[in-house]
């Protein structure tokens, strides 16, 4: 056996063995990891308990626990408890867990999925369409009380996991919410507060805050019923700071998401969404609500307020309030205050009719613009009393104090009205304004139409139009007035720039539109005098008041030249006077014939006769007919003059001049005749064959001279000699044979010039011997090149086969 082959087999076996081991290790490690993930939490360093502890430490439940009285965590005690997929159930009415100066850190590592009811609270665990995962804290059915109660300022509840569900406070006058925060601090990092019922007296389905502070960093508060209000969170004092997490799908009477009765809410992130209520679907604000981020969206209610109802103070500098539905839309400022700055977005909110209402200002109470509005801000405005033309509604106090740009960059009217600042710079406020219209009245005109009306934004300056096409018999239009009978006076023209006291406006004046305005045409007795141009258009138009001298015009009429004449104004004709006394003057003109230039050029555009000026109607004079021409192969004969369309024969009269024209000479072409020289002896030359080549040395050709195979110069002649001899040391001459109409050959010799060639005469020999003709190289057929490529390819193939055999055969022998 070949040892090298054996080595190869061993190498392959080793390689595949390595792969098999690698695969087995991968499967083993992966399976081990998967197995580890499904194992129960080990709680290394934690203590397993079957009863609730009272001393500080880290514990995890070994089973579900039922308690009949409150589990109390005393002052200074800090307990970390992992529910470990188990439950704590309070089997009697009252508080489940009391934190009285201590700290509870709640965790859960459970994976069991539980269902619960979402359409009726307190929720029933084990049925319904809602779901949560892991351990939970609840009350037994029919037993009322909050799950957790924080009693003192030092009390702290940190929720990292688990679910507070099914707790009922409906008839409790003193406590409410799954978490009842009387004092202390509640930090919600993760976990769920769901399916709890708040008090009819106090409200607060998920969390009830009397004082203290809640910080919401994450987690969910959902599917709670607030009873009186605050289905998600009710705040009767204290503080809520919300930076993340979600308060959603809660229901109740007032404040489906959050009810802020007293205290402060600061929202920098998170969402209050999809909550419903009979009164206010989203947020009731009777305290102070600071919103710089996060979103309030998709909340609905059937009441008469807005989804965010302001009875306290809303400081709005960011975040989104969008897509809410309520009687008054997104935000309703009922009796409170809205302070606005930054880049908030309040858009897309609607009332019950589907009309967009974003910020509704009850009693037209304006917002305070307390800072600069920045990029991204967009706030829709609706005032209770809509502005009318000339009476804008104020919505933003002191806007100009902190902003230099127009308020319509950040605000818009929900009703499509204008957002403006007053032209009066002392007025710092922003307004919603109705558009205003300037209308023109003919005031007794008996024909024509007044200028079109113009609708603009309140406070816009509009340029006053002229009379349009208005006419009134026996009267002249003098301008426009605010009243039908205004007379133009110096005082009225010099009125204040703000239009106060001004009654008259001439065409081109400006009027500031601070309300709907009608201007009336003003008429004075008189007539019009009109001067026309040569085409009937108006050159000048002036009014002529009765008793004044007849006006004159300083303008000169014109008439466009035509093909035949140029027109020059001479005088005015007698006026045409209509029945109203109006006069129209028409101009008179003298005429002069137009002049045009005529040019004659040859067929190569060279000038045969320079441009000559003729008056309209004259007949141009032609130059002499050009002589015929010869080219190398053709004889050209002049046949007439062409204007580009028509060719006029020699001797024909050209048409009358009516425009600038260039005539071009036209020629016909005929081929030159050629002679054929006979090849061989016996061809007689002409009696006096001659050749006068330029710069050709004297030479006597001999019959022994033989031309080279490739001539260097070709001789072209009308007739060709029978034979051409080429001297060995003389200029090379090539023989060209053509068919000639006569048998008389003429010899032409063309020789290469020298630096100073003498003039010679070549004397032809009588009956010269014909010089041999150079034999051309054969032109290969198309198939020749194809055969060449074929043979080349075969040779390369054979060489390749041979080389392969020389390499393979020795290799095979060595293997044997």
Q: Can you put this structure into words, describing what you see?
A:
This protein is mostly beta strands and 816 residues long. The protein folds into five domains: 43-239; 279-434; 436-525, Sandwich (Immunoglobulin-like), CATH 2.60.40; 527-593, no CATH class; 597-671, Immunoglobulin-like. It contains four helices and 61 strands. The strands form seven sheets. The chain has a 38-stranded mixed sheet that branches. A hairpin with an 8-residue loop joins strand 42 (418-421) and strand 43. The chain is flat. It starts with a helix and ends with a helix.
Q: Can you give me a brief rundown of this structure?
A:
The protein has 816 residues and is mainly beta.
| Main beta sheet strand tally, sense and closure | 38 strands, mixed
Query: Percent of residues in beta strands?
Result: 25-35%
Number of DSSP helical runs? 4
Which radius of gyration do the C-alpha atoms yield?
A: 56 Å
Our count of domains comes out at 5
Structural shape: flat
What proportion of the residues is helical, as a percent range? under 10%
- Average pLDDT works out at 82
